[in-house]
Amino acid sequence: MQRALNLLLQNMSEKNATLLTHSLNVAKLCTIIARNLGMDEEYYYTAGLLHDAGKLLVPNALLDKSISIGNEEQEILKNHSKWGAELLKLLGLNEFSVIALLHHQDTSDLPLPVQIVAVADKFEAMTSLWRQYKKPVTAKEAIDELWNMRIFHPTVIEALAIAQAEFLTEKKTC
Ligand SMILES: [Fe+2]
Ligand SMILES: [Fe+2]
């Protein structure tokens, strides 16, 4: 598993700095959420890191687009969930493929591991500058938006709210 993981990480860092930063931030948020919920930190770190593995197959020109993307491009981008799940299976990382496949599904019946990674992913995207086509929102606004979606379990959103505050503190003291 470590070999496949290193290979993906190396590819991510060579392909796109934003993808790497986003994935690392999601991984750290997932780890803190898992720690606070008494779950397997290492599993969630890896799950966060690999949730967007399918973006390795999306052209950089599309990942780095600074304006709103068109319908056709959106379809290509959407495929990263499916491609990621397939790629992870091919590399023997099956235990993370469901998360990659479902992390953009906005339904209320998502398994808990998918919910954890999905809230961390959405929060990171909403509050970060890298999403150049949309202005970042504050942490509070992002958390409010996640509540308003009515698809995530309250425990998961509350755990994210605590985790993001801890993550910010950790960042400042580094
Ligand atoms: Fe994604
Ligand atoms: Fe993501």
UniProtKB/TrEMBL annotation:
Q: Could you tell me which PROSITE patterns the record lists for this protein?
A: HD, HD_GYP
Sorted alphabetically, which InterPro entries does this protein's record hold? HD/PDEase_dom, HD_domain, HD_GYP_dom, HDIG_dom
What keywords tag this UniProt record? Hydrolase
Q: What Gene Ontology terms describe what this protein does at the molecular function level?
A: hydrolase activity
Q: Does the keyword Metal-binding apply?
A: no
UniProt domain HD: residue ranges: 19-126
Residues of the signal peptide: none
Q: Which domain of life is it from?
A: Bacteria
CDD domains tied to this protein: HDc
What NCBIfam families does UniProt report for this protein, alphabetically?
A: HDIG
The name this protein carries in UniProt is Metal dependent phosphohydrolase
What organism does the UniProt record list as the source?
Caldicellulosiruptor hydrothermalis (strain DSM 18901 / VKM B-2411 / 108)
Q: Which taxonomic lineage is given here?
A: Bacteria, Bacillati, Bacillota, Bacillota incertae sedis, Caldicellulosiruptorales
